[in-house]
Amino acid sequence: MTSDSKKRVVVVGAGWAGLGATYHLVSQGYDVTLLEAGSYPGGLVAGWKTAGGRPVEAGIHGFWYPYQNIFGLVDELGLDPFTDWTKSSQYSPAGLEAVSPIFQKEQRLPMPLGTFAYPQFPRLPLVDRLSAFTMMYPIIDFDNSDDAWRRYDSVTARELFKSYGVSARLYRDAFEPMLLVGLFAPGEQCSAAAALGMLYYFILAHQADFDVVWCRGTVGEKIFKPWCDRITNAGGKILTQRRVTDVRLNDLGQADAVICGDEVFEADAVIFSVGITGMQNIVRGSSTLQQHPQFRDMMNLGAVDILATRLWFDRKVEVPQPSNACFGFHPTTGSTFFDLNALHDDYRDQPETVIEADFYHANQFLAMEDDEIISMVQDDLITCLPDFREAKVVDSSVIRLPRAVTHFAPGSYRYLLPAQTPINNLYMSGDWVVTRHGSWSQEKAYVTGLEAANHVINQLGQGFPASIAPIEPDEPHIQMARSVNKTVRELQKSLLPEFLLP
């Protein structure tokens, strides 16, 4: 098939979703142009450098046990970018709070017993840990269906945990920190539906789900660069510094071009693969998209500020675990720190210590000067590991990311966009797009990119759909409990007035 006769697709946004859609469509013979507003492909994993030329990225991104589609992609690309499975620790200003094992190496217990039995909690009393089991009903009731999302989305995560009797200490010392680093906001600002979906996928569905590997360098260098090379070698076009300003429609109401200032990229189908903030900026400038209530309504969605720092110390400091989460250091803000000497190949044998420290819901920190931020990070590290008191910072990086990640606030579900839009050849993808797959974060973004590519293939009739690995099925006792719960709900619906339904 000549390039003139190929179906043309324009993909907007070169993160996991956009690259996933582009890669598959190029493999199926489409003429694909990928437009990225930034200077490099990669979205949040695009590369930066310090003043001394050292590579940095916007935070460290873990790859969790359920990320089977991303792991399959990496295998297909012939890459070997990941560490072994790692343990992790959790700290508060009072000291070490928890150490998580590599769960897949432990004897498998029925969900969720292993999640609570195997980690070490040196300070959290058993009675508080046992109060977590009161959450079994909402976990069973939340089956990722549209009805479940609508049922729980108007409630805050904090209200949910409180109403089901989770102890105040367990919420403060365990669940709130998970929300701060998983949904990037405190529980009173998180949708209960999003909290249940995130916690179930990463922690509660199966014992091994909390296991994680890390990239042995920046994700941009280890994964995205070779992936982009594969796309361009197959004929795909990746164009950076192209900020989309509008979409052009033909007489049939279909998108036939994407406009970037004075440039026009003609298309038979369009896929948007940008975050909420980027999509809202596009809608603000697009007279075409503004005509549709669905796009206007998504302007109600919010996003969260992220702060990513990297510090090089002048000496070796022993860090017990390579990945660590912190809570209680700063109100409404969660943080993590990583020992890059243990995770990154370039630092493994270096005499210096390299630490990545990232802050989520970091609104109050973005206005601080770099030296103030670095001093704050040092103080936090010293509180967790006193040996940092003698270490001096010899290089550092501070990356501010305002409105960088999705805020799944209470009531936000109604405004999230589905893959299919009112413009019947324009599709959405990204970690904030509604999907029934059940995945989260990077895996969800990649999966929705493949789903968008499949919509294009189904519409234009060329090529074969991408194969998408489903999440691991619920364990038998959860399947049975959900089946019973669904039957009871349907019976209640047929017998009770709507205002009496739970």
Q: What does this 3D model show about the protein?
A:
This is Zeta-carotene desaturase, putative. One of its GO terms (molecular function) is oxidoreductase activity. Among the domains are: 8-46 and 218-301 and 413-460, FAD/NAD(P)-binding domain; 88-211 and 472-500, no CATH class. Helix content is 34%, strand content 21%. The chain is built from 16 helices and 19 strands. It has helices at 16-27, 68-76, 113-117, 126-130, 136-141, 146-153, 157-163, 168-182, 192-204, 219-233, 276-285, 293-297, 340-343, 370-384, 441-460, 476-495, and strands at residues 8-12, 31-35, 47-49, 55-57, 62-64, 88-92, 95-100, 212-214, 237-239, 246-249, 255-260, 263-266, 269-272, 302-313, 323-330, 333-339, 353-360, 393-407, 426-428. The chain has a 7-stranded mixed sheet with strand order 7-6-15-16-17-14-18. The protein has a 5-stranded parallel sheet with strand order 9-2-1-13-19. Helix 1 (16-27) runs parallel beside helix 10 (219-233), helix 1 runs parallel beside helix 15 and helix 7 crosses helix 9. It is globular, with a radius of gyration of 23 Å. 47% of the residues are buried.
What's the gist of this structure?
The chain has 502 residues and is of the alpha/beta class. The protein is built from 16 helices and 19 strands. The strands form 5 sheets. Strands 7-6-15-16-17-14-18 form a 7-stranded mixed beta sheet.
